[in-house]
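Hi P.,

Sorry for the delay on this. The queue was packed all week, but I finally got your sequence through. Input first:
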Amino acid sequence: MTHRNSTTLPAPQMEIDHIGLSFGGVRALLSVTFNIYPGTIQAIIGPNGAGKTSLLNCISGLYRPQQGQIRFEGRNIIGLPPHQIARLGIARSFQNIELFRHMTVVDNLMLGRHIHMRSGVFSGGFYWGRAQREEVEHREFVEQVIDLLEIQSIRKKMVGALSYGLQKRVELGRALAMNPRLLLLDEPMAGMNTEEKEDMARFVLDINEEFGTTIVLIEHDMGVVMDISDRVAVLEFGQLIAYGTPAEVRNDPKVIDAYLGREHAMV
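Then the structure:
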């Protein structure tokens, strides 16, 4: 992993190359270009309606842009369905919690392992030992996630009975259970109180450091963004208006005028 705000960058893990996305006559993204580097935490910020979630939807295969390429580890992934993109090692969470409320925390996390399961019903029936070994391996990885996110005490509880902050933590766990190389987080701290935000920021850092996972997050809390990000991309009306380290972005006149305001600029 690179150090926070490092100026020395390796070859990009993902290249977002002149992405254009329109819905009818509405242009959601206009020639957006920047790189995502392995082992880093990169934030995408901007006003509401700037195109941040649309960009994540293009990366994860929910939207297909009309222009440009998105290359992940050298391969253009535009046009691939979401499940194939997930198999390549890209996982995501959503603004609105997308968990199975009537299932336990552990069962929700195990669902995150489904893309790695090789033994189907047929092979499991005839090669019971192999299927059992696979189940044990998946459960061991899920236990690592449970320990990292400090949710041991709620592992057997129904997700629907948990507080909002804990549900957001479980959703992060389910995405992490896929053991992705690139993790997309869409406003992971939205609606949280200060203590919950601090916990989530710590977990994001822990995931990045302990698993080596590249993380791209959309976040409105500028304190969090400036504290934990290596690089920041700023969108406004579907266009990239700035990209760089938090310090560079924070002092960019275009960003100050469009989004941050003078009180966030460094003196």
